[in-house]
Amino acid sequence: MERPFTVLQVSLHHPRLDPATFANIQPQLQHDTSPLLVGRGRDAHLQLQLPHLSRQHLSLEPYLETGRTLLAFCLKALSRKGCVWVNGQTLRYLEQVPLSTINRISFSGVQMVVHIKGGTSLEAFVCCFHLSPSPLIYRLEAEETDEWEGIPQEQPPPASGEQPAGHLGFLHDSSQTQTWNSSLQPSPGGGTEIQLQGEPPDRALC
């Protein structure tokens, strides 16, 4: 019996809006339960072409909590260059933090929102990537820059609660909403393909 994958709906924004920054990103990526690397290196699964980004800047790491049957995720900072900001918390080199259902992340000018929708498969998960022309996070901290040490901290954006109306400005029509339930299906040409099915959620991310 096929088991649906956990889906990470990942929205990305960078103020420069340079298409080359996101040129190597696939719309959809199936990944096993090893860490998913984010950076500018060729070995990064989410590759961003930014000069201040480390080759391996951070990772999204799935794990199984004791007594639980669904994958959970944490985010780990892998760069010495600057900080990674996650849900109001600043991570230094090799620090990590567990992720909740909706997560606001910022690093090297990149704004990222990760929405986790759990599935029962423990062998792999699926990432759906979308680019936003509008900012995803407001009231950013000064410490998100590479020169963050010694800079007075501002109040971070709220870690929970409703976002402002029109918060996510996606490139597709926001009225076309869908929540994903993914599973492996045989493809006509042999091998397997991912099929995503579902019903409308509150906000389209994937």
Q: Can you describe what's shown?
A:
- The structure is a single chain.
- By secondary structure, the protein is mainly beta.
- The protein has one domain (6-197): Tumour Suppressor Smad4.
- The protein is 0% helix and 37% strand.
- It has strands at 6-13, 28-32, 36-39, 46-47, 58-64, 71-77, 84-86, 89-91, 96-98, 102-107, 110-117, 124-131, 181-186, 192-197.
- The strands form three sheets. A seven-stranded mixed beta sheet has the order 2-12-1-11-10-7-8, with no helix packed on it. A five-stranded mixed beta sheet has the order 4-3-5-6-9, with no helix packed on it. Strands 13-14 form a two-stranded antiparallel sheet.
- The chain starts with 5 loop residues before the first strand and ends in a 9-residue tail after the last strand.
- The model is unreliable at 142-206 (pLDDT under 50).
